[in-house]
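Two quick folds needed for the group meeting slides. Do the first one here.
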Amino acid sequence: MSVGPPYDAGAIILAGGNSRRMGTNKCLLPYQGQPLIQHVVHQLRPLFATLTVSTNTPETYAFLELPMVSDRVTGQGPLAGIGAALARATSPWNFVVAADMPEISRDLIEKLAEHLPGNRCVVPVTESGHYEPLFAFYHQSLLPHIEEALHGGKFRMQDFLRHMESATVPVCTGRLPNLNTPSDYALSTKKNSQKPT
């Protein structure tokens, strides 16, 4: 596994969820002149060998011209999406990121990648012990454990990662913001417009 980009790993973009709090499909919201998910794709493309979108509505994201993977069983949350994508992945290691996380921290990805040898998942964790599971590396060797959890009705990512004794990298609370509400989106786009060009 290379310690810097391009990483010898794939990237999986999770484009699930119902966007209830946003009121519209947040992955398609305009961000820097393009759909938010495309903004995420452009940031990841130089870093990883392959990109895959995990979604149960592949027709929605056909414009990305990327491989799509759907959950085997819907309604089981992000753990099911990660499992389905890992099962189809061509790289043993894969970086998983939520499609509603507009700014990808290369520095944090590098810190996570440093911990890959000897581990099966590497995840940021906040001061309060909360895992950030949708900005993390997962190895294909986790697949049997994911299947076991899903079959047992255990869908919570926090519980799964604790059970796996995941390797962790500390982050400050709020370091990995995602866009859940219209106010989140308005604040993020405002901050972005104020950045020097």
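Then this one, please, same format:
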Amino acid sequence: MTSRDRDVSSFRKADSLSNKDFQLLAELITTQLGIKMPPGKKTMLEARLHKRLRTLSMSSYSEYLAYLFDEEGQRDELPHLFDAVTTNTTHFFREPKHFDVLCNSVLPQLLPRLGGRPLRVWSAGCSTGEEPYTLAMVLSMYAERVGGLRFDILATDISTRVLETALRAVYVMDKIADIPAESQRRYLLRSRDRAKRLVRIVPELRESVRFRKLNFMEPFHLDQPRDVVFCRNVVIYFDRETQEQLFRRIAGQIVPGGFLFIGHSESLAGMDVPLQAVAPTVYRKL
């Protein structure tokens, strides 16, 4: 065993993130990502950064912070830190009642106003792609029923790692249980090697979704205002003031009369935003 290996082995047994170093990291994470990092999350942060220390062959969290805050670390390591601390829980057809509202109420209101242009949809905080590909499936089926509907889906996330997964559009079979059988048949390609138990989204759906990296804490402006925005289970990690600021900025990217869908554990109640509730966790731009 080399001296470096002994150092890393010793780190695994004994080292921990000091309160001072945790506070530095917490302030950086909140400033850069808007994510709250109270003292109770110290153990979680240690666990998530442990893999980064091993990858970088570093023997302590102090060494990691020294690297993170120098010029090279700011350039090369911040994206990995963002990947480590962001939560990316998602699945196909999550909160399915939203898709019923989309098809039965929202789309009938929006389609007559499009004037022949594509419906513009934004999946904000898209994680590994299950939400935008679900939207693509739902809109494709709806377009077949009504005829003449074209759509453009923009999907964004802060994490480079999850965007790469979303772009590949390859998922294990366990991930597709909530996709209706008809949609599985039409929109999923199974691996030729059945032992791998992998599927991939069909090319026509992959081509309907554009992926882009976007940090909610930085100024952002979409290429075109959106008719429908799904921003679900994203702001729960922000404090109330940051949530309100973000929803105002998101509302600025929605066409008048467009719609915002948020997570069932989230609420705009009491916020000064130009959005009116039209269904549980569904809002219309005034």
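Slide caption for protein two: The CA atoms of residues 237 and 276 lie 23 Å apart.
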